[in-house]
Amino acid sequence: MNQYALSRRGLLKGMGSLGLAAVSSNVCATNGNASFAQEPELASSPVARAVSSFALSDVDLLDGPFLKARIRSQHYLLSLEPDRMLHTFRINAGLPPKADVYGGWESNPTWAEIHCHGHTLGHYLSGCSIMYGATQDVRFKERADYIVAELRDCQTASKTGLLTAFPEGNSLMDTVLSGRKYTGVPWYTVHKVYAGLRDASLYTSNPMALEVLTKYCDWAVTATALLTDEQFQKMLDEEHGGMNEVLADVYEMTGNVRYLTLAKRFCHQKILDPLAKSRDHLDGLHANTQIPKVIGFSRIYQQTGQRDYFAASAFFWKTVTNTRSFANGNHGDGEHFFPVVDFSEHVFSAKTSETCCDYNMLKLTRMLFELNPSAAYADFYERALYNDILASQDPDTGMVTYFQGNRPGYMKLYCSPIDSFWCCTGTGMENHAKYNDSIYFKGAHSVLVNLFIPSVLRLGPGVSLTQTTQFPDIATTKLQWKTNRPVETTVKLRHPHWCRTATVKINGKRFVESRQASSYIELKRVWHDDDVIEFDVPMELRTIPLPGNERIIAFVYGPIVLAGALGREGITPGGDLCVNERLYGTVMNTPFSPPTLTGDPATLIRLAKSTTQPLTFDIPTNRPSTTVRLVPYYKIAHERYVTYWNLDAEEDRLRV
Ligand SMILES: [Zn+2]
Predict the structure, then answer these.
(1) 302 part of a folded domain
(2) Range of the domain at 585
(3) Of 168, 193, 225, which one is at a domain's C-terminal end?
(4) Total domain count, the chain
């Protein structure tokens, strides 16, 4: 999400890059798809992206589930008080706090040893900065500017660039750097503040943000200077967020090569080396510790062209998405990767799919897509966006999930507004602010349409493309040109992997039919005002087997995971709104018997009956004369659900 501004250097810009010029009329349509075998050019210097994203301010969201989610997120961000997040930063700088500190991971003694104090401020600064970039709503810039000024004051008062909110004070980082024993994840936590300052610099046009950030980076350069490589790598055995990525970003923003050198030192060789050799050694590793490291590898590849960084990040993406992921695009049990052969043992855990993991997987996906614009990356992006990120937000309160468990009869549990501040609360502050960042990409003389989300794309003065759609409720989308002059460019429509035959009409006339799923349909043409592209992408009900076990299945319709909606049996009325882990016991310990299905997947699909509601089916269960209703998982809230079905399960064994 930080790449649009960063990627401007050396890339094609503006109208010219899209080939939007008045020329004679010609028309053609082809299917194109870069395969994974085609690696980007390996250079010894910065690697040009094949495509790049548009500025957040070039894309407006129109009414639909994503805009609604963003609005809920706006309300939440505006409800929080920056001074409460700044409380301990000021104390550690020798300044009096201006407000009481928040609860949860920010101050609750129960969580003191994980040392996540202050991570929320970093995410909040990112969230407000991205929200300003996406909406130009000055209320978010004012908040970002205020926090940046406060952090500058902290640096001035403490006479050091270091900024922390640890209860022990800034000296905890001395302990970390000395190699002495400590608990928790201090580097992970301070990384969030680095990233917040980077995002403030990129999206709010506040030069002070980069000043504070470079001071912070200078502190890191000096503080780590005396560490041997061995000591450095030992330090990296603990979770350290995306320090390599953010330092590489600051290198690009400033041109100061010391930050790139430090970014490389922050690359954990135990992870980089095997991945670069296409060895999946992820069993048992903490998932969300690894993904940010890999994002950093990809970033450093973009800047250096050094092959190992690319090989590691591309292989990691492939092995995680193809062999380790659930139908929703997330992975892991209890935050950890497990052996692929043990999928059947882990799938029904209540602690699958930590939401932070897909926050990071989507960042990695869009970064790799910019290097190699394969439809497979965009397919995954869509899958995780609907079934994990959009699904993570409470439609009533805007609060967000931590785990999205597959345990039959589980229910989404959301953070509380000011007493949780989990990692996923923090990434949730950013997730719903940036829905307009990956709908469209620009290539040389082309516009790529990756997602079917109502929106307006501004391509330049007097030229825009408006996408109107009720997708996924209706499997079609419409793109209309508004232009004050004829323009030539190639519109590349993603033909999704889940659609057998996609059809394109231009100005009401059938133009081309594609049977090549997971590819791009290329429409090269001179476009005129009011030209309309209609794109039909029929969906069908399918099942997806669990990796390695064809008798455990999930239902999907198009890209949308369908879950059995099971009601609220055993759940205290109203108790789950804006709650948190306190409800966990209620959900998990109340006796509850979810329905079961049996037979073969093809028969179940045949028996499924569509209802009057879109994307909704009734399917007979093993209980006599009883059906279960399958609905989009992303819409499920405040009720129990089933996402995976064991077709060989005995009902009693499923009692939870
Ligand atoms: Zn998390």
Answers:
(1) no
(2) 541-655
(3) 225
(4) 2
Cβ atoms 53, 367 nearer than 8 A: no
**What strands, in cross-sheet order, belong to the sheet with 476-483?**
59-61, 455-460, 463-469, 476-483, 532-536, 502-506, 509-514
What contacts 585, CB < 8 A, 6 or more positions away?
A: none
166, 197, 225 - which closes a domain: 225
Q: How far is the CA of 357 from the centre of ligand 1 (A)?
A: 7
Task: List pLDDT tens digits, range 517-575.
Answer: 999 999 999 999 999 999 999 999 999 999 989 999 999 999 999 999 999 888 776 65
Asked if residues 92 and 168 have their Cβ atoms less than 8 Å apart, the reply is: no
- How far does residue 354's CA lie from ligand 1's centre (Å)? 6
425 C-alpha vs ligand 1 centroid, how far in Å? 7
pLDDT (average), residues 145-154: 98
Closest listed residue to residue 247, CA positions, set 206, 187, 186: 187
Tens-digit pLDDT profile for residues 462-520: 999 999 999 999 999 999 999 999 999 999 999 999 999 999 999 999 999 999 999 99
Distance 75 CA to ligand 1 centre (A): 21
Q: Is residue 154 part of a domain?
A: yes
553 domain residue, yes or no: yes
Residue 433 Cα distances to 361, 510, 570, angstroms: 17, 37, 35
pLDDT of residue 580: 54
Taking the centre of ligand 1 as the mean of its atom positions, its distance from the CA of residue 303, in whole angstroms, is: 28
CA 7 to chain centre: 19
Q: How far is CA 430 from the centre of its chain?
A: 9
Residue 420 in any domain: the answer is: no
Spatial separation of the C-alpha atoms in residues 7 and 442, rounded to whole Å: 12
Q: What whole-number distance in Å separates Cα of residue 520 and Cα of residue 361?
A: 22
Task: State how far the Cα of 583 lies from the Cα of 264, in Å rounded to an integer.
Answer: 43
Q: Strands of 55-100 (E only): list them.
A: 59-61
